[in-house]
């Protein structure tokens, strides 16, 4: 948008002499020609290609038609329709942005902000912004001109009304004196010459506030002060409009702008060809977009109150609306930066998300299976009541057993189910190979926990003893466990570490293979009061995970 350079203002390189002043100022100003200004003013010059485009258009032969915009969307539509320029009207912007009349309520910041959005959303549309009175004295005018230029405006309109200003076609018009009016335009021109790449449109409202003659005098003075475009608002007839376009002197070569206020303003409406024949170079249509928008919204609201949506003929379809705001261009440009692996995926609809939920639920049975006891163990528990009954019915047998402690008790082998989460054997009798040093049985898919009666009342570490230790959960959680991961095909130990039993559930952070298994529940089955202790060197738990075997040993 901008190229920045340092330059001297052409009009400020030397003090103004009386001869120079006489050639630049109207007769009433020749007495104050010896105004002193700095010899050199260094400032940043911003070059705007749209300003240059507007200059080129003004030097052509055709009259320029410019609808008035009030926001980014209306400016975008104007450009899409092929108009050469647009005018950002203070009347329309105040109405659209504030919902307020054009009575000086909208601020400099709000106008500049709207202009930035317009510049951003359009491609190469020159826009003239309504600068109203410049928002203060001559120094405020200079700041306003610079701000509008930096916002991307190709031109700015400065007028001679008193503050607060109002629409030029309503009652109560008042203008500042001649000296202040010309001072505003001189300040705007100086800001332009000091680096703000923007055209100055000088407007006078003196026709309604004073007289046609006063308006013509001010237009001539604005031209001699250096304005790029001249505009007299609210001229009342073709004769007055011709008097304006036929001004001589410095004003003769300056382009003139007409304002065709739709719907009943003070100026009669002429066709573009007629305006061009009169000598106008630009014409603005201030209310066409805002007016039809207001009426269309009112009609739509009346229908909605009665439960009727606007017809397609009035509303357009959704594709039309998408095209108007730029979806097709956005998606086309987005493809230029497409990547093969997106970092995020669109949110799935509820029915589309169902497979993931189902997959998550499919993992759950494996974890549940790890907590369940094998059918043989369940069968053993179901037999237990009969054994208890048998013991109650035969106290002599109990006494005999107590008298013969060396008698060998039958071995009960409850199996802890730890189903493989990564692969499932095709045959129920398939075996999982264990490392050579393990003495665990390889005849079953699920590892078993076995022990003799002699080891059921003591721990391998020698800490604690009997049923009291087995019944104490704190004792079990404080036991040390050895975790080993080995390759089932080679027997190579990949990892071996020791962890407290109470921290075993955190093992999934260290060993992802056991994710989904309830390690603490498995440990409870293997070490609880109803469990029998494993033989020396036999793991408490064995979990096959693909090509690996995870084993947990009691230390």
Automatic annotation (TrEMBL):
<feature type="region of interest" description="Disordered">
    <location>
        <begin position="377"/>
        <end position="473"/>
    </location>
</feature>
<dbReference type="Pfam" id="PF13714">
    <property type="entry name" value="PEP_mutase"/>
</dbReference>
<feature type="compositionally biased region" description="Low complexity">
    <location>
        <begin position="377"/>
        <end position="415"/>
    </location>
</feature>
<dbReference type="GO" id="GO:0003824">
    <property type="term" value="F:catalytic activity"/>
</dbReference>
<protein>
    <recommendedName>
        <fullName>Isocitrate lyase</fullName>
    </recommendedName>
</protein>
<dbReference type="InterPro" id="IPR015813">
    <property type="entry name" value="Pyrv/PenolPyrv_kinase-like_dom"/>
</dbReference>
<dbReference type="InterPro" id="IPR039556">
    <property type="entry name" value="ICL/PEPM"/>
</dbReference>
<feature type="compositionally biased region" description="Low complexity">
    <location>
        <begin position="448"/>
        <end position="462"/>
    </location>
</feature>
<dbReference type="InterPro" id="IPR040442">
    <property type="entry name" value="Pyrv_kinase-like_dom_sf"/>
</dbReference>
